[in-house]
Fold:
Amino acid sequence: MSEPIIHAQGLARRYGRGDQAVQALRGIDLTVSPGEVFGFLGPNGAGKTTSIRMLTGQLSPTSGSARVAGCDVVRDRRELHRRIGVVFDTPNLYDQLSGRQNLAFFADLYRAARSRIAPLLERVGLTGAADRKFKTYSKGMKQRLILARALLPEPQVLFLDEPTSGLDPASAKSVRALIQDVRDLGTTVFLTTHLMELADHVCDRLAILHDGRVVAEDTVRGLKRQGVAPQLVVRRRDVAEPEVLILSAEGTPERMAELLRGGDVEEIATKEPTLEDVFLRLTGSSLR
Amino acid sequence: MSSNKTPATPTRPPPGKKGGPLGNLWVLLRKELNVGLRSVSLYLLVGVPLLVSLVMRAILSGEGHKPPKVAIVGQDKPALARIVKEFDRAGRSPMRLVDVKNEPEGRRLLAKGKLQGLLVLAPGFDAQLAAGGQPSATLYFDETGGVSAFSLRTVVRELLRIQAHQKEPARLQVRGIRGITPWQAMLPGWVVMVLLSAITMMPSSITAERQAKTLQAVLVTPIRLWEFVVGKGLYGVAIGTVGGIVVLAANGSLQGNLPLVLVFLLLGAAVATLIGLLIGLLVESPQGASGVATALYIPLLWGAFFSDLSGAVGMASRATPSYYVAQGLNRALYSGASFGGEWRGLAVLVGLCAVLLMAAMWGVRRAEERV
Structure:
């Protein structure tokens, strides 16, 4: 197995002191392999943004350590910033500058060739709007330009903090496609989200974060299978409520045969557990 | 899962092209100029002091100055009027005399704005004055007329003194030993005012970056903290220095040891800019930052104008960086001071810049952590 590109051990962060202290992250361990799309799924306040800020060197951990792309996130900040791209949860570019000027400014800071700007604008579908001021962009366009900025240094790891939050379905779909595009080029993607659809569609592996702790970590499929078995939903004529049978439960084949013999079965469907179900089972609370 | 894919290799800068920290400073300065030069407030901050300096220069040099119109009532012989006319002939008229028949007419003209002052002398005024007495007189002015009663009183009192002695005690002229005008001597203080504009300009620039979170975006690039502070600060330094040069040039005072003048301008602008940056980094709300900047701006100005006062105000004024900038500029402009002769002021300002730079770097890291 190749060397992990993200490796965190006991990463913890406390805000404030004394009685006012809030433990945002309670010691998480993480390992992400190169080329993976790794998701941090959790509700608001679970510690997702704190994690991403520590892994990108913006925030020092109160304890624990992390290495990203071969760099210690505290000691090698500058080298780390050469090797990663970050998409923030807010459209943080300069309103007064055009899309192209914004990218040119950041390209210069990353020491990336300016010749990368035009292909990136093309890739995020903003060539036509490149010379318009950033403040005139729609939310979806802003998010795509921020993604283009994060790709300027050709990062080894791309961090995305709630990349589709607040976007309309079409824009969210377009951002999802871009993330998959980035993954296909071999870039590791680390994203945080509270949206199951995004996690379900793009992540190879997920960690569920709750109250500053990782409560589960697996592939999306593996997580869905953790303790929540697939179910059969049987709808019968003249019966309002469908009957739900756990596929692997004892007695299910007999009950199924009985129902079929009754001759009033209208519909039989399988129900895969959703990440929401998994989250609910693991934490006792909803993602939303 | 695709863990066997090869990560992309990061782009490295082309050798020799924008490779050093100077490259980042230029990148940040260019962006600041690109954003800042579109802001009206920048032109107001530099333009207003420039305009006011030109107006002040005109006022203090007497250009366009109209002496107030004054009428005198109750004179037996026109002794006072004769003195005014003598001043008038010498081209130094302190007032213009207007004839009125009596006090009611004078008060009516005063109320209509046709006069700025009405001097009513008691009966036997001239005789009493000549005999060494102290006759009474009343100087009326229109409270809504816009002419200061204090300056009018000073002029009239001076004229009465002259009348009492029948001649001007001395022809006093005020001149600098280096042949500069009193206004030129005040100009370094005015320049400090322009330099200090960075204290009010920089906090809003930083708080805007913090609110829009562009500060975060810049700080996840491979930029060093000092590059960020200096690059961002160069904008304030450039604006302040150019503003200072323009004010000096517009008032005909760009003279003396010009390299030293430039160094004092740069150091003054740097101190003000770094203080402004620090305010923006430490105070989170734009309103709070603006309030702190205004509260600091005024006492810092003292150093430029009140340093020769005695007591606490004088001491506090001499403890400000603006005192060293104003004094240094004054000597560099008008007495051709050398770098060696100004080492003390230069050392204080350079030391202060270094301390403020370190504090600002700490402030940037603090602001980054507190997003």
User: Anything to note?
Assistant: The CA atoms of residues 11 and 64 of chain A lie 4 Å apart. The first helix of chain A runs from residue 48 to 55. Chain A is about 35% helix and 25% strand. The mean pLDDT of chain A is 89.
